[in-house]
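Researcher: Let's run the pair from yesterday's discussion. Sequence first, then tokens, for each.
Model: Starting with the first of the pair.
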Amino acid sequence: MSMGEAPATPADAVQELREIAHSWVDGQQGEAGLLTEAALRALCAGLDTPSLLHLAALSPCEHDLAPELFGRVMDELGFGFHPPEEYWAGRLALARWWASEIVGGWLGPAEGIALIFYNVAEAYGRCEELNPVIDAVAAHWENGGPQRSPEEITAQLHQLARELLARIPAPGRPA
């Protein structure tokens, strides 16, 4: 579904909000109007949460409230992301969240692995938790790009996401 296209069902509306969340949680926040418009489309599709109506009803002069309300909407829909306060632990938690979104089918494997690689792994380089992603991306480019079918590549990226879930402890749990 493209942004701006009215979702047909509540499930479609949740998917649109999830797509916004995939970049939003990493601070790549677009304009608040995007959030209010997505909230309005979600309401029209039949989705309802306590904070969704508030988000959809924000006037332009209240857009500074949009990030907090969107955070509440994500929590109410069950896909909120709350990273640990320590920066590196938070980055690993973000990589784990994106990996869980891939495994759950809510984030495309290529897009998700790219988010993990460029927004987490590339910034920190090699570490035990992220080595599989770094190795896979390096091998892909060393071999001159895709050497396998799209299905094989997708399967490999899903496997990478599952490996990350096993390697990176869930926030709040001891390593």
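Model: Moving on to the second of the pair.
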Amino acid sequence: MQLAQPPLVPGVERDSAAHELIEGVSSLIRAVRCIEHRHLMPDSGLRRSDASMLKILAKDGEQRGGEIAAKLGVDPSVVSRQVSALEADGLVSRRPDPADARVGLVSLSTEGRARLEALYSSYTQQLRSALDDLDDDALIAAGHTLQRVARAITEANQVVRRSQPTGD
């Protein structure tokens, strides 16, 4: 652990490497949101949360709303409302689960897939333009590193959530 700067909070050690990672991730999130808000989302007619759900359905196929909620880290009621809106827009479809008719299976519609593909095509063009000084190997390495960091943070968060009292 590298302690290069004085602590922000007296008595609490400052881990410079972890702090730099936090700052880097925060900067990346702000940059992505800026591109989404200014360039991509208004043209696609999708909200960021819509794109996230459609991406899960495109990647993992038809699934229960509870599975989607777990992958998004939100309450199933949030997914239920969102699925209703996306279904009304023709971007997803819902059918009863043959194993349990009380539960619905959600799938991506042809229109939903087309909108998602158009969004990510535009996003890819923006990203390639912004990072034109990096070759494919550098982009792939950066992607792998970011995914590893995201997995580690998600896993750590799940451990913390399991160890907290539920209030039951």
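Researcher: Give me one sentence on the second I can quote.
Model: Strands lie at 63-64, 92-97, 100-108.
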